[in-house]
Write a structure and sequence with these properties.
Blueprint: H1 3-25, H2 29-50, H3 63-72, H4 77-98, H5 105-130
Helix pairs in contact: 1-2, 1-5, 2-3, 2-4, 2-5, 3-4, 4-5
Length: 135
């Protein structure tokens, strides 16, 4: 089991959240949303790796694939809620990255808060699998 890769993804996710917080403080709403999404994405991949879910058929962790697998693999209501939040963050990231529309402070704060929730949930699950305490 590639624990070290999963752990590195969790570390990366936490770094991205730190950057997202800094972006909010500096008024960079769109990049805060993007960093929050990518933090969530990396933590969701780490979660799947520890649950022995394989990447998409091409061997890559594609965005839609990760979202779909996360929702399909849910065994707890909390996992389903996290999967829905991941999809919402992805949608916000698409607007933030590709639309000329300016994002606002409120949307970026909500997005970063969701990112924190997703990352901490996944980080806790990854840690419990590594410790051998998985459900």
């Amino acid at each position: 089991m590639p624990f070290s890769e999963a752990e590195r993804r969790i570390e990366k996710a936490r770094r991205f959240l730190t950057v997202a917080q800094s972006d909010i403080a500096n008024g960079y709403w769109d990049t805060a949303i993007a960093r929050a999404y990518y933090a969530s994405f990396h933590s969701a991949v780490a979660y799947m790796m520890c649950r022995q879910i394989r990447p998409a058929p091409k061997g890559r962790w594609e965005h839609a694939y990760v979202q779909e697998r996360f929702l399909e693999q849910t065994q707890l209501a909390a996992e389903e809620a996290i999967g829905r939040k991941l999809r919402r963050l992805y949608a916000a990231r698409i607007v933030a990255d590709y639309s000329p529309r300016e994002m606002d402070r409120s949307t970026s704060i909500v997005s970063v808060d969701m990112g924190h929730e997703i990352v901490e949930f996944c980080a806790n699950e990854v840690a419990s699998v590594i410790r051998g305490e998985a459900k």
